[in-house]
Amino acid sequence: MDVWLLRLNVAKCNCVSYGEKPRQSCYTISDETLHKPDTVKDLGIIFDTQLKSVDHINNKINKAYQILGIIKRNFIYLIPHSFLILYKSLVRSHLEYGVIVWSPHHELNIWLKN
């Protein structure tokens, strides 16, 4: 970084270790220690150190309920076809984003999904 004169905002950098027992080592860039958070958001998907996706699933479920509430409050008299279009475009798109990455494979996450 110093040789090629590249600037890096170290305050925005994080260090993440994945696994059952994450490593406790400290990493530095330009003599500044990197922050080690429990969860990291990358491209809209929340990853935790054990890759369990519970935080991400809860976040997406809450967002879907918020948008569904907005639809119910603002569009009181909808025919089923119009509601289906709004649901598929505004609610389901949030629930299905990045499903390949966080698709539930733990029994707890499958329960949360239902």
Features:
single chain; 114 residues; 2 domains; two-stranded antiparallel sheet
Number of domains: 2
Give me the strand/helix succession: EEEEHHHH
Strand content: 5-15%
Average predicted confidence as pLDDT: 83
Helical run tally: 4
Description:
The chain is mostly helical. The protein has two domains: 1-37, no CATH class; 44-113, no CATH class. The protein is built from four helices and four strands. It has helices at 54-74, 80-96, 99-102, 107-113, and strands at 28-29, 32-33, 39-42, 45-48. It has a two-stranded antiparallel sheet with strand order 1-2. The chain has a two-stranded antiparallel sheet with strand order 3-4.
Q: Quick gist of this model?
A:
The chain is mainly alpha-helical and 114 residues long. It folds into two domains: 1-37, no CATH class; 44-113, no CATH class. The protein has helices at 54-74, 80-96, 99-102, 107-113; strands spanning 28-29, 32-33, 39-42, 45-48.
Strand and helix map with partners:
Blueprint: E1 28-29, E2 32-33, E3 39-42, E4 45-48, H1 54-74, H2 80-96, H3 99-102, H4 107-113
Antiparallel strand pairs: 1-2, 3-4
Helix pairs in contact: 1-2, 1-4
